[in-house]
Amino acid sequence: MDPMDPMNPINPINPMNNVGTDPPMEERFAPRARPKRSPRYGGRPTAITSLATYVPPRVLTNADLEKLVETTDAWILQRTGIRERHIVDPGVAASDLAKEAALKAIERAGLTPDDIGFIVVGTVTPDMMFPSTACLLQHKIGAHRAWGFDLSAACSGFTYALTTASQIVASGAHDHALVVGADVMTSIIDYQDRATCVIFGDGAGACVVSAAPADEGAILDYEHEIDGSGGAALCMPAGGSLHPPSQETIDRRLHYVKQDGQTVFKFAVRKTEEISRRIMERNGLTPDDIDLFVSHQANRRIIQSASEKLGIDPDKVIINIERFGNTTAATIPLALNDAVCSGRLKKGDLVLLASVGAGFTVGSVLVRWGF
Ligand SMILES: CC(C)(COP(=O)(O)OP(=O)(O)OC[C@H]1O[C@@H](n2cnc3c(N)ncnc32)[C@H](O)[C@@H]1OP(=O)(O)O)[C@@H](O)C(=O)NCCC(=O)NCCS
């Protein structure tokens, strides 16, 4: 194999390998009693030190949707597990939801916006094409010393952003990073398409990732994939450089989410299981070692099917899609927040996050909860 081929394990630019820091393959996969921080993380230990969420007050129920499209409360509940979702009022953008969650998260971490060195916002519904939502958010919260950017990974936005921020902090570049998942899905949903409009809602979640002693909780490991061959199964075709907005794109309703639901469903079940199994195996864990499984909330049946295949006790699985629908990059922090508030997530718990989203994007992050 060509040593400069990016897939070649000895090529240092292959991000899967971290040549020089990873131990040999056998060691990485050897079972361990307690997961330690992955050798994928260079530098310092990092931890999630706070969490906050925000959803807009307005609620769209299944009964409301019955008036818009040919559907029923019973169908939506049975096929998706959703009863209601929160939606923004006109003029409210992703950065507005992000601001509410971010300010609370920074305060809960005992910090001020000036302490934040880096901001990453997972979103597919930025306020506008540019400037980035991270820039708009930085200004709105007064994080005068931060730099940052948006990250487009759809429903994997939060897991990707968490890994990105954790690596930045681990590198020593910054002590505190702000991770945000924020989406106003109602801005890109076609309320004439019953196959998509019943699923999505709006919301935001934020957490602070800081350098922290390993015994105070830690972000232990991650696993991510992309598979662009699945791009057409879930996308918003127009509005970008391929199909810039025109009368035709509007007439053809191409600036809305298009989804091949069954393809996405099957991929999501398979990959949620696969990526979760892989990260557990690499860390020498069995499903019994996991205290809480927090999967992206796309469909109750996806979460139940994947967690059943994994053999995770249903009591350890958080499902809160009933109240929020699929809020894309915000589902995982919203689920974590519910788990904390209901006492199901406690300091010291081992938490497995997993996501599958448009792209396709796939992610998992293993976290020792620290508060
Ligand atoms: C979209 C989804 C809920 C549809 O559920 P499903 O059980 O796969 O339903 P199907 O698409 O097979 O459609 C079954 C029937 O229900 C109908 N249907 C679709 N949406 C409906 C709705 N809102 N109300 C009533 N009937 C509906 C279909 O027209 C179809 O009718 P037909 O059999 O007469 O053709 C499901 O495929 C799904 O959740 N996919 C993954 C979505 C996802 O995770 N997206 C985000 C990724 S991160």
Give a quick precis of the structure.
With 371 residues, this protein is of the alpha/beta class.
Verbal overview:
This protein is an alpha/beta fold. The protein has 2 domains: 46-215, Peroxisomal Thiolase, Chain A, domain 1 (3-Layer(aba) Sandwich), CATH 3.40.47.10; 218-368, Thiolase/Chalcone synthase (Peroxisomal Thiolase, Chain A, domain 1). It is 30% helix and 21% strand. The strands form 4 sheets. The chain has a 5-stranded mixed β-sheet with strand order 1-7-6-4-5, sandwiched between helices. Helix 9 (261-282) packs parallel to helix 10 (300-310). It is globular and about 55 Å long. Coenzyme A binds next to helix 3, helix 7, helix 9 and strand 12.
Q: Give the percentage of residues in beta strands.
A: 15-25%
- Please tell me the total number of domains: 2
The CATH homologous superfamily of the largest domain is called: Thiolase/Chalcone synthase
Could you tell me the number of beta strands?
13
Task: Indicate the radius of gyration in whole angstroms.
Answer: 20 Å
Descriptive key words:
371 residues, alpha/beta, Peroxisomal Thiolase, Chain A, domain 1, 2 domains, five-stranded mixed β-sheet, 12 helices, disordered N terminus, binds coenzyme A
